[in-house]
Design brief:
Elements: E1 2-13, E2 19-21, H1 31-34, E3 39-49, H2 53-56, E4 58-59, E5 65-69, H3 76-95, E6 99-104, H4 107-118, E7 122-127, H5 131-136, H6 141-160, E8 163-166, H7 171-175, E9 183-186, H8 198-201, E10 212-217, H9 227-235, E11 243-248, H10 254-262, E12 269-271, H11 279-285, E13 290-293, H12 302-309, E14 313-317, E15 331-332, H13 337-348, H14 354-364, H15 370-389
């Protein structure tokens, strides 16, 4: 049985023909579908061939998974110019598949759902973010104008679906409600290994008067992760605390280098480049005291969950499903640098209870361990397969 997975994700290729992901869709993620389907065809966009793909990106290729690429239609102008070409390819792929999983928000996903309905194919949705927040915070005037229409299209598509998986517990469900007839499950997109309490024993051997190491994981290319907010916020604390801010990510960091110089903390900001998912990232997080997630828009971000699983303290924005992870006293409004600085300062003043907060964060993310989430996912996709066989 053949499953078609559809999203707007940008994949890259290497000279040996392997396909790579920026990290969101590594090869291990396909196993959750292969438990119930014999092979998968993946529709996305192609970012081109990259010479050092194996060191810069996560391998997405694996046996029983094939990739097909369509032109960009994720902006209004691109949608107008490339709609016909993309529709023909997506329609053909849906026609030649037994079932469809459309990950939203994505223009490819919406198009695949339309084709599935026309062809009477069984489909399921994965809702991973809010399209309104993404477009409105993108910065483009055209994107802001398009946001209401994109929101309406995604909301209508979700309400009409028979099967919906949300990565949040409450946020996306409230923003994009499902119908009473739908089969619904919540399961974060994270693949978190079984937690080991040994990581807590390595925490806080230093005192809160020592240098504080802040950390953030986010692509330098977009503003979504709020790196600019974090730099501005930390600059407000530069005279009161000794700290270092480490940023793990891909892309051109020069705009943020310039920003750090402007705010007078260039000597305290370190751009660490990128690391493969899994243990290298966990080892990096083990050196971080306070993890920052000042996102402008989110579904349920993976990085703070990973950070909490390593016992990190966390300060984050209220974007998307983040409030499902942290108490309100550790949250600030998206884009509010002053509010973020105040939140960090309050946390720094609680040095005597950092261990308690760390243990709370660690225990809270136990429910995101892969063995727990995989049971929900297996049942959800088994239901998709069973619906296809009826």
């Amino acid at each position: 049985m053949k499953l078609l997975f559809v999203h707007d994700h940008i994949f890259y290729s290497s000279s040996d023909g392997n396909i790579y992901s920026t990290g969101c869709l590594p090869q291990n993620i396909w196993q959750r579908y292969l438990y119930n389907f014999s092979n998968i065809e993946v529709i996305g966009r192609h970012g081109g061939e990259v010479q050092n793909a194996s060191t810069s990106f996560a391998l997405s290729s694996r046996p029983s998974v094939n990739f097909k690429f369509v032109p960009k239609i994720s902006s209004p102008l691109a949608y107008i110019s490339s709609k016909k070409t993309a529709w023909k390819k997506i329609f053909s792929c849906v026609q030649n598949s037994d079932a469809v999983v459309a990950r939203l928000p994505s223009e490819n996903g919406l198009m695949a759902v339309k084709a599935a309905i026309l062809l009477k194919k069984t489909y399921s949705l994965e809702v991973v973010a809010c399209v309104w927040d993404s477009l409105y915070n993108y910065g483009s005037i055209i994107a802001k104008i398009y946001a209401p229409l994109a929101y309406y299209r995604m909301r209508r598509t979700i309400y009409r679906a028979d099967r919906v998986l949300y990565v949040t517990k409450h946020f996306l469900q409230k923003r994009y409600p499902y119908s009473s007839k739908a089969s619904v499950v919540n399961a974060s997109d994270i693949e978190l290994p079984t937690l080991d309490t040994a990581v807590l024993q390595k925490r806080f051997v230093k005192t809160y008067t020592d240098k504080i190491i802040f950390g953030l994981i986010g692509n330098y290319k977009t503003k979504y992760k709020g790196i600019h907010t974090a730099i501005e916020a930390l600059s407000l604390l530069k005279n009161d605390y000794d700290f270092e801010f480490r940023i793990l990510g891909k892309g051109d960091a020069s705009p943020y280098v310039n920003m750090a110089q402007k705010y007078g903390i260039a000597d305290r900001v370190i751009f660490c480049g990128s690391l493969p998912n899994g243990n290298p990232v966990f080892e990096w997080l083990d050196q971080i005291d306070i993890y920052l997630q000042p996102s402008l828009t989110e579904g349920l971000p993976r990085s703070p969950i990973e950070a909490m699983s390593r016992g990190c303290l966390c300060v984050a924005s209220t974007a998307g499903g983040i409030p499902e992870l942290l108490d309100t006293e550790y949250l600030h409004k998206p884009g509010d640098a002053k509010g973020m600085a105040q939140t960090i300062k309050k946390l720094l003043q609680k040095g005597n209870v950092w261990k308690v907060i760390s243990e709370r964060n660690f225990n809270h993310v136990r429910e995101y361990q892969s063995d727990i989430l995989n049971k929900r996912r297996f049942s959800f996709y088994k239901e998709l397969r069973n619906a296809m066989e009826r």
